[in-house]
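Retro notes (design track)

What went well: tokenization of the new backbones is finally stable.
What didn't: we kept losing track of which sequence belonged to which structure.
Fix going forward: every design gets posted as structure first, then sequence, in one message. First example under the new rule, 335 residues:
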């Protein structure tokens, strides 16, 4: 291995990484290790090359209070079913996994264009929901409440600015009735950045949020990210459900979409709260998707900065409050 690619890791995590590689590859193999770019979870991700074989080594970052303890069991089940890349080494106690590397291509090159991708993601979601049941964790509305409560305590916004959103969350939770017996295996982060297209098929990655959940949560996120028109929504719904949803299901799905939008608003605001601010924000106005894209193109907003996360958070919050479809995370947030 060249020039200690794990130098940025604490000593104990370096040892975990080296042990994982040694468990998979022969000691005499010529191994090249380099950090992989991208990712938003805080995990350490490395590309491992040994001859013609390539792997991804992923070391989970510092556990958060909302850490899902079942993520590795969920990943294993998904990998055994062929939905996630093959696993070569997994140690849940050390929070490390080594899996096949997937050479991915842009999702917009998927055969059939947006219609083909909507159909494929719906079919993938159907496969996921048919897996052996993942373990149960905290109910999703409660996770959203905790994330949002954290945002409200950060001092990021002026007093009273978030009151309408907080009240809407209370109202949605009252209306969103859960049936634990209908829960299914769920990824719970069904975003473009977590889907890989290898030129032939789709793979799901990043399973840290995977647990047993209401099937509408993944469906809500998939619709907001892979079906940017009503026609494509119907394609994705048909591929996942095998039938058009009835009125009751559509009403519950609208509530689930509201919850997922507030969840991502909360995640983005939590990221922006890490940067110092001169004063609390008193303005919730958000740009349109076209305005946001122009700001990125003109470099008035820079990718993966607290300021950009803050603007995106406002866009998702606006979607939560209005019911309009959110913008989806832009390309620089896809990996």
């Amino acid at each position: 291995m060249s020039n200690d690619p794990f130098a940025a890791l604490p000593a104990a995590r370096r040892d975990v990484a080296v042990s994982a590689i040694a468990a998979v590859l022969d000691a005499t193999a010529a191994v090249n290790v380099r950090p992989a770019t991208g990712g938003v979870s805080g995990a350490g991700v490395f590309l491992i090359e040994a001859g013609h074989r390539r792997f991804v080594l992923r070391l989970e970052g510092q556990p958060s209070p909302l850490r899902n303890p079942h993520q590795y069991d969920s990943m294993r089940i998904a990998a055994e079913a062929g939905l996630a890349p093959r696993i070569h080494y997994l140690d849940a106690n050390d929070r490390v996994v080594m899996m096949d590397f997937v050479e991915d291509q842009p999702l917009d090159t998927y055969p059939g264009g947006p219609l083909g991708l909507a159909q494929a993601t719906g079919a993938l979601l159907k496969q996921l929901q048919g897996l052996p049941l993942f373990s149960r964790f905290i109910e999703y509305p409660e996770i959203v409440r905790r994330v949002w409560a954290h945002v409200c305590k950060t001092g990021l916004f002026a007093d009273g600015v978030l009151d309408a959103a907080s009240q809407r969350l209370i109202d949605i939770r009252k209306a969103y009735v859960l049936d634990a017996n209908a829960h299914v295996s769920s990824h719970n982060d069904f975003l473009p950045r977590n889907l890989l297209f290898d030129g032939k098929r789709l793979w799901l990655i990043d399973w840290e949020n995977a647990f047993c959940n209401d099937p509408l949560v993944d469906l809500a996120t998939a619709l907001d990210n892979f079906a940017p028109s009503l026609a494509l929504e119907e394609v994705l719904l048909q591929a996942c459900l095998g039938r058009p949803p009835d009125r009751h299901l559509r009403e519950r799905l609208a509530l689930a979409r509201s919850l997922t939008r507030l969840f991502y608003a909360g995640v983005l605001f939590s990221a922006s709260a890490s940067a110092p601010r001169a004063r609390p924000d008193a303005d919730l106005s958000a740009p349109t998707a076209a305005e946001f894209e122009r700001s990125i193109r003109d470099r008035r907003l820079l990718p993966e900065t607290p300021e950009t996360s803050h603007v995106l958070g406002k866009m998702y919050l606006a979607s939560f409050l209005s019911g309009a479809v959110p913008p989806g995370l832009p390309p620089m947030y896809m990996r």
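Added context from the reviewer: The radius of gyration is 20 Å.
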